[in-house]
Design brief:
Blueprint: E1 5-15, H1 19-30, E2 35-38, H2 53-56, H3 58-69, E3 73-75, E4 79-85, E5 88-92, E6 97-107, E7 111-113, E8 126-127, H4 129-137, E9 146-152, H5 155-165, E10 169-175, H6 179-188, H7 193-205, E11 211-213, E12 217-221, E13 228-232, E14 239-243, E15 246-251, E16 253-255, H8 258-262, E17 267-268, E18 271-272, E19 285-287, H9 297-311, H10 315-318, H11 322-338, E20 354-356, E21 361-362, H12 363-367, H13 372-379, H14 391-399, H15 415-426
Parallel strand pairs: 1-2, 1-6, 2-3, 6-19, 8-15, 9-10, 9-15, 10-11
Antiparallel strand pairs: 4-5, 5-6, 7-16, 12-13, 13-14, 17-18, 20-21
Helix pairs in contact: 1-3, 1-9, 4-5, 6-11, 9-11
């Protein structure tokens, strides 16, 4: 079957349809320019407004409504995998191949969970906290299942509350941050009344569920599937074994910067660098949301609005949002300080613990190397289907390695589509 390249042109193209992308696309389109938006999920909303959440959240409904009213052309189930030249990207859907041209580009690619290897973490039913939540949103039955939620960051509380609403039995919540760090974070919330209300709401929803600070999974055990988890308990090395059906474990979030890096935007300390208008180091390319720093829903929406207004030609209007953005960024910095990973987590993997799941590379094999490139050449770590998206951040934490530059295609792509692109331009 011959693949046909479908071509479209936009004044502004937005990549990512989470909160930042929705706000950016809607605001840009309301400026009177033609806007296209690409996202690999089946519907707009990103991970936070996935499935039923997009219908029950009034904030999501308002932004999706503005998006539709403004006439944004949305490409759902579609993933950008390459930029062959400035002003043009290639995107792949299940049955379609697109060449999308633009004058201005807004990158709003969100973030993913950070996974840290420990013995048994590859067992079935050991999942990312957000990953398990996404599966439940997509229809996974969780009622009556015993779930241990562990790792670090506010996402743990949100996931636990969501799972409990769907009748899961939450055994406990294990947060690796210390009690002192969490107390200092509470003081940082004094200037964020909205965050305080959210916190009280979550505490009410999670009443009578044990919450352990300074605690994390040491080992997952089970015959063929997860049966129990060993958790640390106290600073003296004590442990406790908890029976469970699922372990929802994630150590905060990792910004998705691969596309921005491919576009040659400046990335420093894992974050895309932007100016006051959310423009990157590449003229005409803007970035909003988690790739510039993980700061929550409100910050993503504000940055998306600023990027959309600036890309749409109304940069002066965006200035009204600078103060709110500054306040939310201060909260984001407090978030980073509070949930910084403790060094004890580096000692969790055993020699036979798999670190790169795609290529089955163990900790012992990686420990012989001194760099990401060296380990990649000798062990194929990072060369599997995820292209280092899981093991890359893990080895950065474990060994202080820095992954190499991103190379196209950014995601695994069908060979017939690559061939069709080459044939299309050969005939132009």
């Amino acid at each position: 079957m011959k693949v046909v390249v479908k071509k479209s042109q936009f004044e502004v193209l937005v990549i990512g349809a989470g909160p930042a992308g929705l706000a950016a696309a809607a605001c840009a389109a309301e400026c009177g320019v033609t806007v296209g938006m690409v996202d690999d999920n089946p519907a707009p909303g990103g991970q936070i407004w996935r499935g039923e959440s997009a219908k029950t959240s009034s904030v999501a409904a308002r932004w999706i409504g503005r998006l539709q009213a403004a006439g944004v052309q949305v490409f759902c189930g579609t993933r950008v995998f390459h930029q062959p030249e400035p002003g043009r990207v290639l995107a792949e859907a299940e049955d379609d191949l697109f060449e999308l041209s633009y004058q201005k580009l807004i990158v709003a690619t969100g973030a993913r969970e950070l996974f840290l290897p420990f013995p048994g973490w590859t067992l079935p039913n050991v999942m990312g906290a957000g990953g398990l939540q996404a599966l439940v949103k997509s229809g996974l039955p969780i009622a009556g299942k015993r779930v241990l939620v562990a790792g670090s960051g506010p996402l743990l509380l949100a996931v636990a509350a969501y799972l409990r609403q769907h009748d899961a039995e939450i055994s406990m919540i294990c947060e690796q941050a210390s009690r002192g760090s969490l107390a200092r974070f509470g003081f940082a919330l004094l200037g964020q009344p909205g965050k305080i209300r959210q916190g009280f709401s979550l505490r009410k929803q999670l009443a009578r569920i044990p919450f352990l600070s300074g605690s994390w999974p040491v080992e997952a055990r089970g015959n063929k599937t997860l049966e129990e988890v060993v958790i640390s308990q106290g600073s003296n090395g004590q442990t406790r074994t908890v029976a469970c059906d699922y372990l929802a474990c994630g150590y905060h979030l990792v910004p998705n910067t691969e596309l921005a890096e491919h576009l040659r935007c400046e990335v420093r300390d894992g974050l895309v660098q932007t100016d006051d208008q959310q423009q990157t180091s590449v003229p005409g390319v803007f970035c909003a949301g988690e790739p510039t720093g993980v700061g929550g829903l409100e910050l993503a929406l504000v940055e998306g609005q600023i990027a959309g207004l600036a890309a749409g030609g109304r940069g002066e209007s965006a200035r009204k949002l600078f103060g709110e953005r500054g306040n939310l960024r201060r909260f984001a910095r407090a978030l980073d300080r509070t949930f910084a990973l403790r060094p004890e987590l580096r000692s969790l993997p055993r020699p036979d613990t798999i670190v790169c799941r795609c290529e089955d590379v163990t900790y012992a094999r990686l420990a012989h190397h001194t760099s990401w490139r060296g380990s990649k050449l000798q062990t194929r770590c990072g060369m599997g289907a995820c292209q280092g998206r899981v093991c890359g951040p893990a080895t950065r934490f474990l060994f202080d390695w820095s992954p190499d530059s991103v190379r196209p295609p950014i995601f695994p792509t069908r060979l017939e589509n690559l061939s069709a692109i080459a044939s299309s331009h050969a005939s132009d």
